[in-house]
């Protein structure tokens, strides 16, 4: 929520450019070499274009992995859906090479599932289309050991149309296409994600709120939280250690863990990388690690945006800057206010903020998070060194100049969230629009009402979007809207327990 662990942003900016030179330029598959403390990138999206059938290089990757890990007997095939929930299958060791040579089939309806796994027929990807299977292929350099199951490996998949083109409904493909628009101008995004979550007692009756976990230090349920509390970190030291070790094994650059305001609430920060797709791969895989580590400690990790009505919610903050062809930070200016491009980018992100609200807050519970004074912004404000605004420019200046987007909840799909931010950034830079004056002081006191703060209003703004469809594709936007429509209809068909308490005997 409050972390600013980006002191080495400048070094990475310089290092990224240096590595790109060594690798033969920005178009090289080896661009990421050495950026996250290892000899090679975990998931190079720049080799993305080469994914396909019968690729000898990728087959050799699988053969080498099997040789290095003779004890691994099975593999999880992972495909993040529209909510960034992993869908997949588990295969035996003997089938891995075949997956690399021939691909693997998943139903397209994977991208028509709501958060509960139900297929929303409103999308047209269910029975209406015959629930068709679509081929999927391994993403290079994503073959890794599962740290909490040493006999198991994992692999990220990419869905392709039968003609070999990217599947239109895959959020990862949307982000890749937006990054291409940036690359046409010689720009490359530097991105880092921060994720908040709660640890809760896994024992819970259906429909009842969660309970805080027991503290290892006191033996009592945690009743209060303290921001930056070291004792809270000590109470869950083994759990946090497991996250750190698992991240190292999978080459995920988890940077810092800190205690948040509420009991059992934590934040884990990811190190910045000059590849937006890679940064989002890190984010979705980190969530998988956190959940698994919690399960191993007999607790449950939840990224639910607002699990407690009287406590702060879980957010997903995104830090981003922009590299030019020379590897310089485009946002750096002659003083602490940054460059004109920084202001153009801010206004561009503001321009898409209302129409991208459904992406930042995709579920019914998401909107409980937006409360005054809760560290969740409630308007389209921006400012320097100000945590009450939606778009914050951190205090670090010069080569470290960057934007922090604070609006989204932890339930947002990182691929779609970053896609929306980069689309806005690109739009602002090409239109060269100026933002209003930055907010000083408490942004919660602003009367700005342009930001939709209900689920239904957010979908309406998304349906009438003017900018996002040019970046996401109209077909994808229709799919996403219809998915959320189906989810909203299903949610509104239920009756909440409070309704019985209020209305059964009174009206």
Structural write-up:
- The radius of gyration is 22 Å and the shape is globular.
- It is of the alpha+beta class and 507 residues long.
- The chain starts with 8 loop residues before the first helix and ends with a helix.
- β8 (254-259) and β9 (265-270) form a beta hairpin.
- The strands form two sheets. Strands 7, 8, 9, 10, 11, 12, 13 and 14 form an eight-stranded mixed beta sheet that branches.
- It has helices spanning 9-23, 56-68, 96-102, 171-183, 230-235, 237-249, 276-296, 340-351, 357-360, 414-431, 455-463, 468-472, 474-492, 497-503; strands spanning 74-80, 86-92, 104-107, 133-138, 144-145, 152-159, 188-200, 254-259, 265-270, 300-302, 316-323, 382-384, 391-393, 403-405.
- The chain is built from 14 helices and 14 strands.
- α4 packs parallel to α10, α6 (237-249) packs across α7 (276-296) and α8 (340-351) packs across α10 (414-431).
Strand content: 15-25%
Low-confidence stretches: 1-54
The tally of beta strands, per DSSP, is: 14
Helix content: 25-40%
Main beta-sheet strand count, sense and barrel state: 8 strands, mixed
Oligomer class: single chain
Rg of Cα set: 22 Å
Q: If you average the pLDDT, what whole number results?
A: 85
Would you tell me the structural class of the helices and strands?
A: alpha+beta
What general outline do the C-alpha atoms trace? Answer: globular
N- and C-termini, Cα separation = 43 Å
